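hey m, so remember when u said the C-alpha cells were messed up on ur end? i reran from scratch. heres the input so u can diff it against urs
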Amino acid sequence: MTASAWAQDKKPPVAPEPVPVAPAVVPYDDKLSRLAEVIGSVHYLRTLCKAQGSGEWRNDMQRLLDSETKDEPQRKERLTAAFNRGYRAFASVYTDCTQSAIVAEERYRNEGATLATEITSRFGN
C-alpha cells in the first residue's frame, strides 16, 4: 500500500461523545425552588406598588443563583424558571397596586423569610 493510499483509507479520529452530567440535586432544592418563586412574586408586587427597595429582590435572586448554581446550569434554569413563574403569576392578576396586592406581598415576604430560615437552619453551614 502506498503512503497516499494509506492516507485515504485512514479516517480522522472521532472525538468521544460527551457523557451527559446528571443535574445536581440537593436535599433542599424543593424549598429553594419555592423560595425563588416567592422572591419573583415579591419582586413583582413591590415593583407594582413602588415599594422602597423593590429592586433589591431581583438582586437577591441573582446572588442566590450565583451562590447556589455556579457550575450547574440546569439547577440555575430551574430556579430562574421558578422566579419567573412567581413573577408572572402575580403579573397576570394585578395590574394596579391594591390593598389585596399589598397583603399578598406581605404574606409572601413572610413565607420567604420562613423558607430562608428553614433552609439555613437545616442545611446551612
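this time it looks ok to me. DSSP finds five helices and no strands in the chain. if urs says something different then somethings off w ur setup not the seq
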